[in-house]
Every structure is written in structure tokens, then in C-alpha cells.
């Protein structure tokens, strides 16, 4: 079996992968003791949020092969669902965060219905339209959502006996990290399961997979719904953390950045998207001095990497690993 | 009577703009099989180039062709830099989406740097207003309604009656066979992008004459053009043109009776319904376009 098994579940043993993931997250969990200023912690928190959104997108885009361009709308729905639930309905913030994930999941199922019979570019068009529609609806209901002004003073999360505002973002850091951890474990368990294998089978050879009894409709709904839950939770956390919401989350610029995280990281890996989220978020911070030139430089970087390394950072990693293995085998 | 006339004018006017945008998207899709997400910023850049030329007090009848020529060059450049190197890759559709999106972000921020965020307006094609059967319309809108069919007709003649146009359609139908009979496929790819960008620029000039320009002015027309090509089917040029006018009228009727806010929602509902019944588009035949 010398074929490329990168996208195949079950290549690295369970134990090794679990050990690596736990080690990596343990290292991340220690960073607040080294990184003590609240601004650097803020950057890391944003990187965690983006990593959740990007890695969940990798599930539908990379594994499922479903070009869901409404993924950021699922994030935006999480943002606004949390804002509306805590502000208007007075629901407990923690409960609202979980419910936001559920709302995003339902939205994903709704958007799956029109794309069940579609392929490729048509899915891009419909999901893109869906994202725009959600934004239009939010803008039009300005009595509740604040319209173009956005929502302000959204209720934040709370911990009994702990002041979340004056701890230098210490607590927020761990909540964000916990969401990323839960999301990553969920995604990896899913893609390594039989369900994950059938999703990949549908992507790679739809006719054969269907003829072997895999239901395209059911698997596609599962793929989209599974990619939505933690995306919505991340949106809710983002709203609670930023304490405001605006329709900017539906904009093309954020979608482009997150999509480039998925593609730069290399699709169908989950870890690639997470790694690229860290790299790009920190890179954007390093570039802060360039001001208005930052988006221009980021765009150029994306184009250059896509032209030179078609399979992204994971491709560089894979080829480096392959050459190392070759040398070791002599 | 007033209502019917207003809807008629609104529909023809919006339909003209949508058609001008959608034709370029469809041309690129049929020829190269990729989707150009920079199409909206091509429109925006066209309007800004025209604004700059008019600011140097160049008369409008020179500004129009000059802008279209410049933008044709930009379209060619776009194709050469972010599309051509990727041809032959297995995941080209997805990668081109991200490279054209990145290019769009590049151009958008570049325009913001060069011309600043302040809104600008282009001179109208023809000044003044007129009354038709008691309904007031601007001459600018009438000019757009009249010019667009001429341009689209010229495009149709070009694609169906000239050797170059036939070559372009040959590439769209069968790339390998086109290579075998000696067509310069790469040059034709560039030509498709050049024509699309020139038409988008014209749409930008139309729009800049009645609405304020901003670096993000292309986003909404791009979305509408996407809806139009899904609606009309991507396999031909005439499908999107009919669909453009159809959607123009649909929008005019909806915004007259239900208000501006509900129009996008209704449009999307109709789109979903259409895709569930006839996914290849209203005028489309079943082709590779679906894959």
C-alpha cells in the first residue's frame, strides 16, 4: 500500500494520534503562563476561533468535496443567534452558546436541501447566495439586529466567582482552547469513523459509493450538519468575547481569509487548516505595521502559495516527510 | 398604467445591467470551465478608470472605448497571472475560486489606496430627463436600455459569425480537438477574459452614472450575475441574457409590490425552487457544466 493515503482514515494508529493531539493541546494550554500580556492572548484566542471555523470547513470542503461557500454564514448565524437569544430572550449565555450551535446546524440542514442534486460550481453559487440572503435578512430586521449598525453590548460569558474582564483574557483563552479541542476531537473521530470513510468515498467516486449502498442524501446532510455545530458555537463565543456583532462576518474578505486557511493548510487533514489558521493569524499581526497594505500583501501571499504549492502547507509537510522516510530506508 | 410602465422601465434597466455582467461570467465559464470571482471588481475598476479619464477632461465618447480597451488588458493580465498557471490541476475550479477572490481583494484594496474611500460619480451618458407616457425617466437609463441590446447583439454576431468567435466557441466545446486543429488555446483563454472584463467595465460605467461609486460597488452586481447564470444555465450565452431580463423584471415587480427588503429573499426562494426542479438552468441543456 504505497498509494497516497493522506485522506484515508485509520493510517496513523489511534494511540499515536491521541498522544500527539493531547501533547499539542497541553503545550497550548501552558502558553498563557509564558504569554502574559492580554493583547498576545487576544491574538491566540482569535487564532483558536479561526481554527475552529476553518477546520470545520475542511470537513465539508475537503472530506465531503461539497463547495459550501455559505460556511461563514453558519458562523454568522452563530454570532447573531447568541446575540439575539441573550439580549431578547434573556437565555443563559452558556445555554445560548450551545443553542447557537444547534441553530447553525439546522441552518446547514436547510441549505443542504437545495444542493442535494447539484454538483461543483452550482453548489458554490447556491451557498454563496444563501450567505448573502442571511445577511440581507439580518440587515432588514434592523429593529432586532441593529441592521448595518450591528449589535452592541452583547452579554458576555460568566464564571462563578471569577471576573472575566480583569484577568488579562485568561479565562477566555481556556474557553476558546476548550472549544477548539472539543471541535478537533469531534472532527477527527468523525473522519476516522465509517461515516467519515463513506463521506470520502462519495467524494472520490460517487457512482461506485452509491452503488455500494451509501446514501448520498443522508451523508451530505450529515457532512454539512456536522460541520455546522462547532462553527456556530465558535460564532457564539466570538459574539460573547467581542461583545458586539456586525454583518462584516458575512463579508467576502473574512470568507477569503478563512478559505485560504483551509486551502493553505491543505484540505482533508483537519490539522492542516488548524495549523494554517495559527500561521495566518500571527502573520497578519506581524504585518500590522503595513496598515492598509496588509490585505494586499495577504492576497498576494495567498496567490503565490496557491500557484507554487497546490496542496498547501500540508503538501510541503508531506513531501518533506516522504523524503525523510526515503532517506531513512536508504 | 403608471405602475406597469415603471415596472417595464425598471425591469429593462436592471435586466440590461445584469445581462452585461452575466454574459462575461458565462463566457469565461463555457470557455475555460472556471468561475471568475473577480468579475465584480473588474466592473468597479472599469468605473474608476473611466472616472479618472473623465477627470482629465477627456470627452466621454473617447473615455468609453478607452476604458474598455484598458480593462480588456487588465482581464488578460488577470487570466495570465491567476488562472493560466493552474490549468490542468485536478482541483482547478476550487483553486481558481480562491485565486480570483484573492485577486479581487487585491484590486479592491488597491483602488482604495489609489482613489480613496470618498464616493465618486461618473458623468451620465446623456444628460437630462424625459417623460414617456407620463412617467419620468432619465436619459441615462434610456441610453443603457438601448445600448445594451446592441452590444449583446454584436457579441452574438462575433461568437457566431466570425472565425475568432467560432474558435472561442470551439474551445468551449472541445479543448483537445481545438488544439489538434491548431487553435491557440491559451490566447483564446486570454481573449475570453479580456472580453468579459471589457463588458464588466461597461456595466461599471453604466452604474457609475446613476449611483455613487465605491470600491465595493461590484459585490452586489456579482451576486446578481451569479443568480442570473444559475437561473439561465451556464452552457450558453443566450440563456443568461434571457435570464437577466427575466430577473430584472422579477426584481422590478417584487420591489414595487413587496418592497426592496423582501426582494432578495423572494429571488432566492425562486432560485432554490428552480434548482430543485431543473438544476441545469431554465434555458440550459444537460452538459458537463453540471459537473
From TrEMBL, chain A:
<feature type="transmembrane region" description="Helical">
    <location>
        <begin position="18"/>
        <end position="35"/>
    </location>
</feature>
<protein>
    <submittedName>
        <fullName>Branched-chain amino acid transport system permease protein</fullName>
    </submittedName>
</protein>
<feature type="transmembrane region" description="Helical">
    <location>
        <begin position="253"/>
        <end position="284"/>
    </location>
</feature>
<keyword id="KW-1133">Transmembrane helix</keyword>
<feature type="transmembrane region" description="Helical">
    <location>
        <begin position="171"/>
        <end position="191"/>
    </location>
</feature>
<feature type="transmembrane region" description="Helical">
    <location>
        <begin position="65"/>
        <end position="82"/>
    </location>
</feature>
<dbReference type="GO" id="GO:0015658">
    <property type="term" value="F:branched-chain amino acid transmembrane transporter activity"/>
</dbReference>
<dbReference type="Pfam" id="PF02653">
    <property type="entry name" value="BPD_transp_2"/>
</dbReference>
<keyword id="KW-0472">Membrane</keyword>
<dbReference type="GO" id="GO:0005886">
    <property type="term" value="C:plasma membrane"/>
</dbReference>
<keyword id="KW-1003">Cell membrane</keyword>
<feature type="transmembrane region" description="Helical">
    <location>
        <begin position="94"/>
        <end position="115"/>
    </location>
</feature>
<keyword id="KW-0812">Transmembrane</keyword>
<feature type="transmembrane region" description="Helical">
    <location>
        <begin position="42"/>
        <end position="59"/>
    </location>
</feature>
<feature type="transmembrane region" description="Helical">
    <location>
        <begin position="221"/>
        <end position="241"/>
    </location>
</feature>
<feature type="transmembrane region" description="Helical">
    <location>
        <begin position="296"/>
        <end position="318"/>
    </location>
</feature>
<dbReference type="InterPro" id="IPR001851">
    <property type="entry name" value="ABC_transp_permease"/>
</dbReference>
<feature type="transmembrane region" description="Helical">
    <location>
        <begin position="121"/>
        <end position="139"/>
    </location>
</feature>
<dbReference type="InterPro" id="IPR043428">
    <property type="entry name" value="LivM-like"/>
</dbReference>
TrEMBL record, chain B:
<feature type="transmembrane region" description="Helical">
    <location>
        <begin position="90"/>
        <end position="111"/>
    </location>
</feature>
<feature type="transmembrane region" description="Helical">
    <location>
        <begin position="187"/>
        <end position="210"/>
    </location>
</feature>
<dbReference type="GO" id="GO:0022857">
    <property type="term" value="F:transmembrane transporter activity"/>
</dbReference>
<protein>
    <submittedName>
        <fullName>Amino acid/amide ABC transporter membrane protein 1 (HAAT family)</fullName>
    </submittedName>
</protein>
<feature type="transmembrane region" description="Helical">
    <location>
        <begin position="7"/>
        <end position="28"/>
    </location>
</feature>
<dbReference type="Pfam" id="PF02653">
    <property type="entry name" value="BPD_transp_2"/>
</dbReference>
<keyword id="KW-0029">Amino-acid transport</keyword>
<feature type="transmembrane region" description="Helical">
    <location>
        <begin position="222"/>
        <end position="250"/>
    </location>
</feature>
<feature type="transmembrane region" description="Helical">
    <location>
        <begin position="58"/>
        <end position="78"/>
    </location>
</feature>
<dbReference type="InterPro" id="IPR001851">
    <property type="entry name" value="ABC_transp_permease"/>
</dbReference>
<dbReference type="GO" id="GO:0006865">
    <property type="term" value="P:amino acid transport"/>
</dbReference>
<keyword id="KW-1133">Transmembrane helix</keyword>
<keyword id="KW-1003">Cell membrane</keyword>
<dbReference type="GO" id="GO:0005886">
    <property type="term" value="C:plasma membrane"/>
</dbReference>
<comment type="similarity">
    <text>Belongs to the binding-protein-dependent transport system permease family. LivHM subfamily.</text>
</comment>
<feature type="transmembrane region" description="Helical">
    <location>
        <begin position="132"/>
        <end position="159"/>
    </location>
</feature>
<keyword id="KW-0812">Transmembrane</keyword>
<keyword id="KW-0813">Transport</keyword>
<feature type="transmembrane region" description="Helical">
    <location>
        <begin position="256"/>
        <end position="277"/>
    </location>
</feature>
<dbReference type="InterPro" id="IPR052157">
    <property type="entry name" value="BCAA_transport_permease"/>
</dbReference>
<keyword id="KW-0472">Membrane</keyword>
Amino acid at each position: 500500500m504505497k498509494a497516497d493515503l493522506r485522506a484515508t482514515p485509520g493510517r496513523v494508529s489511534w494511540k499515536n494520534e491521541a498522544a500527539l493531539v493531547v501533547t499539542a493541546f497541553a503545550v497550548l494550554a501552558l502558553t498563557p503562563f509564558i504569554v502574559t500580556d492580554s493583547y498576545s492572548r487576544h491574538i491566540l484566542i482569535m487564532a483558536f476561533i479561526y481554527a475552529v471555523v476553518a477546520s470545520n470547513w475542511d470537513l465539508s470542503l475537503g472530506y465531503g468535496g461539497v463547495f459550501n461557500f455559505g460556511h461563514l454564514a453558519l458562523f454568522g448565524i452563530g454570532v447573531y443567534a447568541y446575540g439575539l437569544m441573550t439580549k431578547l430572550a434573556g437565555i443563559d449565555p452558556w445555554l445560548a452558546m450551545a443553542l447557537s450551535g444547534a441553530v447553525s446546524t439546522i441552518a446547514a440542514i436547510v441549505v443542504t436541501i437545495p444542493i442535494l442534486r447539484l454538483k461543483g460550481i452550482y453548489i458554490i453559487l447556491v451557498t454563496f447566495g444563501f450567505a448573502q440572503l442571511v445577511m440581507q435578512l439580518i440587515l432588514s430586521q434592523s429593529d432586532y439586529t441593529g441592521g448595518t449598525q450591528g449589535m452592541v453590548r452583547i452579554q458576555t460569558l460568566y464564571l462563578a466567582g471569577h471576573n472575566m474582564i480583569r484577568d488579562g483574557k485568561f479565562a477566555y483563552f481556556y474557553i476558546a482552547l476548550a472549544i477548539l479541542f472539543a471541535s478537533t476531537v469531534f472532527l477527527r473521530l468523525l473522519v476516522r469513523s465509517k461515516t467519515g470513510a463513506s463521506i470520502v468515498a462519495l467524494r472520490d467516486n460517487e457512482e461506485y459509493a452509491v452503488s455500494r449502498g451509501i446514501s448520498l442524501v443522508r451523508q451530505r446532510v450529515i457532512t454539512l450538519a456536522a460541520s455546522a455545530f462547532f462553527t456556530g458555537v465558535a460564532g457564539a463565543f466570538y459574539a460573547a468575547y467581542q461583545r458586539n456583532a456586525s454583518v462584516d462576518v458575512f463579508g467576502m474578505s473574512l470568507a477569503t481569509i478563512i478559505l485560504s486557511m483551509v486551502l493553505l493548510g491543505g484540505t482533508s487533514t483537519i490539522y492542516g487548516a488548524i495549523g494554517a489558521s495559527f500561521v495566518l493569524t500571527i502573520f497578519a499581526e506581524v504585518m500590522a505595521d503595513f496598515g492598509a497594505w496588509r490585505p494586499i500583501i495577504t492576497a498576494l501571499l495567498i496567490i503565490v502559495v496557491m500557484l507554487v504549492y497546490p496542496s498547501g502547507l500540508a503538501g510541503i509537510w508531506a513531501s518533506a516527510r516522504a523524503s525523510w522516510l526515503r532517506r531513512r530506508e536508504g | 398604467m403608471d405602475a406597469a410602465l415603471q415596472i417595464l422601465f425598471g425591469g429593462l434597466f436592471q435586466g440590461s445591467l445584469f445581462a452585461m455582467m452575466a454574459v462575461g461570467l458565462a463566457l469565461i465559464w463555457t470557455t475555460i470551465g472556471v468561475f471568475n470571482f473577480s468579475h465584480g471588481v473588474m466592473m468597479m475598476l472599469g468605473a474608476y478608470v473611466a472616472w479618472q479619464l473623465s477627470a482629465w477632461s477627456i470627452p466621454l465618447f473617447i473615455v468609453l472605448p478607452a476604458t474598455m480597451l484598458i480593462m480588456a488588458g487588465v482581464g488578460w493580465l488577470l487570466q495570465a497571472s491567476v488562472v493560466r498557471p493552474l490549468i490542468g490541476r485536478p482541483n482547478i475550479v476550487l483553486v481558481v475560486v480562491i485565486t480570483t477572490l484573492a485577486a479581487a481583494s487585491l484590486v479592491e484594496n488597491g483602488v482604495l489606496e489609489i482613489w480613496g474611500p470618498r464616493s465618486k460619480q461618473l458623468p451620465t451618458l446623456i444628460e437630462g430627463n424625459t417623460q414617456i407616457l407620463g412617467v419620468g425617466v432619465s436619459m441615462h437609463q434610456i441610453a443603457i436600455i438601448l445600448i445594451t441590446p446592441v452590444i449583446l447583439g454584436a457579441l452574438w454576431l462575433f461568437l457566431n459569425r466570425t472565425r475568432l468567435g467560432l474558435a472561442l466557441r470551439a474551445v468551449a466545446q472541445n479543448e483537445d480537438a481545438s488544439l489538434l486543429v491548431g487553435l491557440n488555446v491559451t490566447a483564446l483563454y486570454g481573449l475570453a477574459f479580456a472580453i468579459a472584463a471589457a463588458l464588466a467595465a461597461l456595466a461599471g460605467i453604466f452604474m457609475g452614472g446613476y449611483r455613487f461609486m465605491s470600491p465595493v460597488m461590484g459585490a452586489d452586481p456579482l451576486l446578481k450575475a451569479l443568480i442570473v447564470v444559475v437561473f439561465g444555465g451556464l452552457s450558453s450565452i443566450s440563456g443568461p441574457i434571457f435570464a437577466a431580463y427575466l430577473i430584472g423584471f422579477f426584481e422590478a415587480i417584487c420591489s414595487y409590490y413587496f418592497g426592496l427588503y423582501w426582494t432578495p429573499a423572494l429571488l432566492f426562494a425562486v432560485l432554490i425552487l428552480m434548482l430543485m426542479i431543473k438544476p441545469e438552468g431554465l434555458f440550459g441543456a444537460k452538459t458537463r457544466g453540471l459537473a
